[in-house]
Amino acid sequence: MWSRLRLRPATLAGQFLVLQLTVLLAVVAVASVVSVQQSDADFRDTRGARLRAEAERLANTKIVRFSFRTDAVDANRSTLTSVTQRVRFEVQASGVYLADPDGVVLVSSDFGGRDRTIDLAGSTVQQLRPWTGDVDDFGTPSIAAQVPIINRRLELVGIAMVAQEYPTWAERARSVLPDLLTFAGLGLGLGTAGSFLLSRLIRRRTRGLEPAAIAALADQREALLHSIREGVVAVADDGTVTMASDSARELIGLADDVEGRRVDDLALDPAVHDLLADDAEIRDHVVVLGDRVLVVNRNPVIERGRRVATVTTLRDRTELLSLQSELSARESITNTLRAQTHEFHNQLHTISGLVQLGEYDEVSRLVGTLSRRRAEISDAVLAHVEDPAVAALLIAKTSLAAERGVDLVVRDDSALPRLDPEASTDVGTVLGNLVDNAVDASVSVGGDTVEVGLRLHDATVHLSVADTGPGVPADRVGEIFRRGWTSKESTVGGRGVGLALVQVVCERRGGAVRVRAGEGGSGAVFEADLPGAARGVEVR
């Protein structure tokens, strides 16, 4: 039974109420002590002045002065006792005494203090100066006024003392309790109302979550930021970085103390700074940082119709790009081989038919023509391109284009020497994708020519591919290199990857790719620059 009983966790309002009550009780306790002390001070000042006035009046009474000056105290004791009792009654004192110069009580208002010595510690009465202060009134803490009784020769002949005992703690508390209860009740009411309103405000700001839930979310957030492989950066509307995952710090070089700092104050690559500082939505934007290729997405965070932040995600696609580039090369080779196989089948069928017809001279002429055409294609490419991988790609693409009715030609001013393997691979990737797009564009409108230009200058490969297709509309030039953009119909394999891959390969090497209209306004010319290409060593 008891195991099923669980205390509900305290709500935020309950915690604030308990805190307010605790503070209020502490304030009441302190106020009580201060009030009692203030009451004592008031009592000491007020009663001390009254007691001193009565003691001076008693000391100056004729019968008192006469009795002490003539040593007639014993003779007038009953009268003196009556005088002290009257003073005690009028001033509501606890004791009234007439003593000799040494403080021995000669006359007491209650007959109990006779022949006992009054407390003269700290008193100045024996120096003929009236005094008011705290005394021990025969075991009772009291405040007393002591006034000297002097003769005509200004000699001390007696002491008049009027004493009033301090009220008890209960009496003091009763004097201040009504006010304390009033203020305590008022404070409790205000504290309860304030706690309720404050809890409502905090619940609204925290989406109704209690502190335990907020702490759990914070722990989960930290665990998530340390575990996800994608980079995540959140930037507030004022340009302050509010969150950055470990992967984001590594990918774009953020410092550990980046959170809480403005984007403009961070030492970031200009491309990264523009991505984080802007607030427009972007999808699959490719950014090249050093040797990394990042795919960036940015989404605004909208709260109650107002943009309050942006969240940018970064995916490292460096390895995927390499695989995609290699796959593109393999796909190009596969398509080329497929086209050549189809062409060889047609030629073999033709030769087989001529043999069956006994037209051996025609067979000889056909074989010669085919061999001559193949040699012409190879010679036309090798005359301008010495790099074997690029030359083989152009020869294969020429055959593939010819099958589709397009003449692929290399410009006369082209000159590309042997390149280092990495540069050769990148040139092949860029050239293969541009040629494929150019052939597709030309075929779509009945064009028949694709022209390729290649040259190496200052360790930078400059290549151009001109088609006789429909061209690129001026208002869409900025979109054609975006991943997913295509002018072709969708297929199962996907479209819109080739030009995006070309741009990424060029930017990774520090170059660029651009497009312009062809001569006479027909077709399009794609130009790409790939820096950092070193001459390769020819193997013999």
If you had to describe this structure to a student in words, what would you say it looks like?
The chain is an alpha+beta fold and 540 residues long. The protein has 3 domains: 12-171, PAS domain (Beta-Lactamase); 230-315, Beta-Lactamase (2-Layer Sandwich), CATH 3.30.450; 382-531, Heat Shock Protein 90, CATH 3.30.565.10. Helices cover 47% and strands 20% of the residues. It is rod-shaped. The relative contact order is 0.06. The model is unreliable at 1-7 and 483-496 (pLDDT under 50). It is a multi-pass membrane protein. It comes from Nocardioides cavernae.
Q: Largest sheet, if any?
A: 5 strands, antiparallel
- The count of β-strands is 15
The CATH topology annotation of the largest domain reads as Beta-Lactamase
Within the largest sheet, what's the order of strands? 2-1-5-4-3
Query: In CATH, what is the homologous superfamily of the largest domain?
Result: PAS domain
**Low-pLDDT sequence parts:** 1-7, 483-496
